[in-house]
Model the fold of this input.
Amino acid sequence: MTALPAILHEPIQALLDEGDKLFDKGKFDAALLKYEEARALLPSDLSRWEASTWVLTAIGDACFLMGDMERAQQALATAVECPEGADNAFVQLRLGQAEYELGRLEQASVALNLAYAHGGEEVFEDEDAKYRACVKAVA
Done:
């Protein structure tokens, strides 16, 4: 895992913080714009940087909550390839949910089972029961 130089890390973190404040107010469109600004600052080799995991997860989460499942899936699938993304229960949860909503039940099951493996029942606590049922169907 490689940390970004401060000259990149600080503005990316500032944009993520701004996006998170908007996100918490339910302003997902505005938050997504901030997250996309942060993404534009990342070096091209996304899989090398821990910051990529945070930025892509934020993008994926916002897209998921806005109903843009294809874009959510793309961001989260890339986040899985970044440092600590594959072991992050939330990343796997949102990826599995996006896959489920896109009708890709096999891929959804894989990601949701990984979410369960890394986060247990807690990761499904505030989520629709259909996603937990997808894990039960296989587990």
The chain has a mean pLDDT of 94. DSSP finds seven helices and no strands in the chain. Residues 61 and 89 are 13 Å apart (CA to CA). Residues 87-139 form one domain.
